[in-house]
Amino acid sequence: MVSRRPLGSLESEVLEVLWKSDDPLTPSEVLHRLDTDLAYTTVMTVLGRLWGKGLANRSKTGRAFAYSAVMSEADLSADRMRKVLDASSDRVATMSHFLDGLDSVQQRELRRMLEERE
C-alpha cells in the first residue's frame, strides 16, 4: 500500500465532488460543482495531487484530463481507521475506546456484521 499524506480540506472537498459523480470530471467541471471562487489552476493542482496520492484515476479527454475517485468514501474511511489501529501500541484499548464512542444502534449494527462474518 502506498504511504499517503493526510488529505487537506480542499482535497476532501474535491473528492466529495468526484464521489457524487457517476462519470469522470474535468477540472472545469469540478470547479463548477465546487461553486467557489477558486482558480482553475488550483483545482488542477488538487486533482493532480489526488492522482499522485493514488486517490484518483485520470484519463485523457480531448485536451484535458478527466478524474474519478479510485475508492469510495467508505473505503477511504475504513483505510484511515485501519491505519490508526495499526499505529496504536495497544490495539485492544484503541478498539475499546472506539466502541465506547458508538451509540447503541451503531454497536448493534457492528455486532450484527461481526456475527455475519463468523
Automatic annotation (TrEMBL):
Keyword Flavoprotein assigned: no
Family: Belongs to the BlaI transcriptional regulatory family.
Protein name: Unannotated protein
Keywords for the protein's UniProt record, in alphabetical order: DNA-binding, Transcription, Transcription regulation
Any one GO BP annotation for this protein: negative regulation of DNA-templated transcription
InterPro entries: BlaI_family, WH-like_DNA-bd_sf, WH_DNA-bd_sf
Single GO term (MF): DNA binding
